[in-house]
Amino acid sequence: MKITKVDIMKMDTGNHFTPICIRVYTDEGIFGDGEAALSYGASQNAAVGILKDFAAHVIGMDPLEQELVWQKLYETFWGKNGGPVIFSGISAFDIALWDIRGKFFNVPVYKLLGGQYRKELRTYASQLQYGWSGAYETMATREDYFNVAKKAVAEGFDCVKVDFLTFDRDGRTLTTEETTGLLKPYYIDLFEERLSAVREAVGPNVDIIIENHSNTDANSAVQIARMAEKYRIFAFEEPNVPTPKMTRAIRERISLPIAHGERVYSRWQFAPYFENGSVQLIQPDVGNCGGITEVKKVADMAHIYDVCVQIHSVGSPIETAAALQLECAIPNFCIHELHRVALCDFMRRLCKYDYMPVDGKFQVPDLPGIGNELSEYALTHCQKITVE
User: Does the pTM of the predicted model rise above 0.85?
Assistant: First the structure.
């Protein structure tokens, strides 16, 4: 079997989230869908460009030899020690090839990864500062945070994640200057006002993840963590720009478990965090860390160091399907992320199947391959480049 053609698609969602997907075709009529997880953050055109460049390298290769394809793309000059653009390109092809492999052998990908540890995955409601619905909202008041947390828990979620310093009390987006350095009491009080509201709303038996989006630094992160300790925090995510040394410095001064990973790419970049013990929960993105092949290797490395895994998932349902296949097949899975953007119609209509958790748990698709594919809507509402 040979790869004959690649379609690269920039989805027209009418929103600032613009998924970049590919469809890889073969001479046996089997195709696979993948995604480069750079759907936001002023990087979509770069994703399209790297996919176009990489497509020329894979035409004619055997899609069942995904390790060889992975290595060929990694060994392009900028591949070694590459960043998000390079590894998003590798990821999209890798996911598509696993999809083809599963369809070829007529089994879900988790079977090819060694089997299914669990049939359902605990899931958390992510980014409640933007509301919990199919429409974008701004959570500003204490009452807003109380109500949105109540709403998520009423749907069956037993864990929520919030960035408490996204907005000021008037709904204005806070700046990095306001959230880094040694914080004024105002910002610590604002944070606690909202955190206490969420804890009050969800009760003692629901977990809370603090999201920081790397908008805090070592100083402000330590201040926040020490204040938050009494609220029984599940994980403290991206407290700083991801660097192993400074993450370790934060870890030594706080008691909360630290999560990092959505901006860490490949096993080479994850290794220092494992070696210095700075991170307790990793969040590699299957769409920008190197695909299923690489994230499986990163997860296996993490297992050696008693680090658990939650795949970062903020792409289209293609990326979600790939993440579910992998998460059910690793022993050190922790929890799955359902980003609020996944609730929006502009994302839900992009794939043939609209998988959603029930009572806070995701079922793993049992269809051959990753278990989902791009919809007719997606295929007709995109900018497409074909390489053959």
Answer: yes
